UniProtKB/TrEMBL annotation:
SUPFAM superfamilies: Periplasmic binding protein-like II. This is Phosphate ABC transporter substrate-binding protein, PhoT family. Keywords: Signal. The keyword Transmembrane helix does not apply. The keyword Magnesium does not apply. It comes from the Bacteria. InterPro entries: PBP_domain, Phosphate_ABC_transporter.
Length: 276
């Protein structure tokens, strides 16, 4: 038993040393800090925040960071009501939200929102007009778009989603969405739904697109990171993290880390565009 305990301690020490050597400069401000940081809201943010939190907590075990989803609306409301310390949002808070809650939004990334279908679906290019018809429920069969003679299953996000907000505004041009659409709660849930439905269509953060779903070009432009960076792909939004009042303590240190060269590298490795 003692042998296994010693081995576990050695693994932890090696892990801490490797983290400290690779990230020492960026993580130095967290040395000697203690406390808990509660974060919730937009789900697109989670891969970046989770990776940053892991590095911070490994370097300093006296810091605890908890991360939850819920959507942008939940993040804004909960941080405004002091339930959490940081509320993630895939859209900039409105002037009313900022005034009501005394919010301070910090932008650290830019993300695109791409239309996705099942990898077995041959329809991988649509016009804005076709996309509007699908989500409005006026185009009901994949056959009308060059696919199989099967009904189109629409997947949507709930009203609190920042991903949905930018998709509805910039992808659908604020057109109608059918009440028959299936509603899912996160980018991860959307990917799972589309991956398991050969006739489904939905939308996810470009940073979440992988082999489990097939990206759909919109008006001849693919939802890729390069196209988002160049501005060719217009369905894009900022990634914000909000505090109630000016950020301080661990929240301020986390924001500084996300804007450091090391933090920006994490943002880009997770499929987003970093912001200075």
């Amino acid at each position: 038993m003692k042998k296994y305990k010693l081995l576990s301690l050695l693994v932890v020490l090696v892990l801490q040393l490797s983290v400290n050597s690779a990230w020492s400069g960026a993580l130095d401000p967290f040395a000697g800090q203690k406390g808990t940081l509660k974060i919730a809201g937009g789900t697109a943010h989670i891969p970046v925040i989770k990776e940053a939190a892991k590095l911070i907590m490994t370097a300093n075990p006296d810091i605890r960071i908890t991360i939850a989803g819920g959507g942008s609306g939940v993040g804004i409301k909960q941080v405004g009501e002091s339930i959490i310390d940081i509320g993630n949002s895939g859209r900039k808070p409105t002037e009313q939200e900022i005034g009501t809650y005394n919010l301070h939004p910090v932008k650290w990334g830019i993300d695109g929102v791409g239309v996705v279908v099942n990898p077995d679906n041959p329809v991988t290019a649509l016009s804005t007009q076709q996309l509007q018809g699908i989500f409005a429920g006026t185009i009901t069969s994949w056959k009308e778009l060059g696919g199989k003679d099967r009904s189109i299953n629409i997947y949507d996000r709930d009203a609190a989603s920042g991903t949905r907000s930018v998709f509805w505004k910039k992808g659908l041009k604020k057109s109608e969405v059918s009440k028959k659409a299936n509603v899912v709660v996160s980018n991860g849930a959307m990917k799972t739904a589309i991956a398991n439905d050969p006739y489904g269509i939905g939308f996810v953060s470009v940073g979440h697109i992988d082999a489990s779903v097939a990206p759909v070009s919109l008006d001849g432009v693919a939802p890729t990171l390069d196209n988002v960076k160049s501005g060719k792909y217009p369905v894009a939004r900022g990634l914000y993290s909000c505090t109630k009042g000016e950020p301080s303590g661990l929240a301020a240190l986390l924001f500084d880390f996300l804007h450091s060269p090391e933090g920006r590298k994490i943002v880009e490795e997770k499929g987003f565009i970093s912001v200075e």
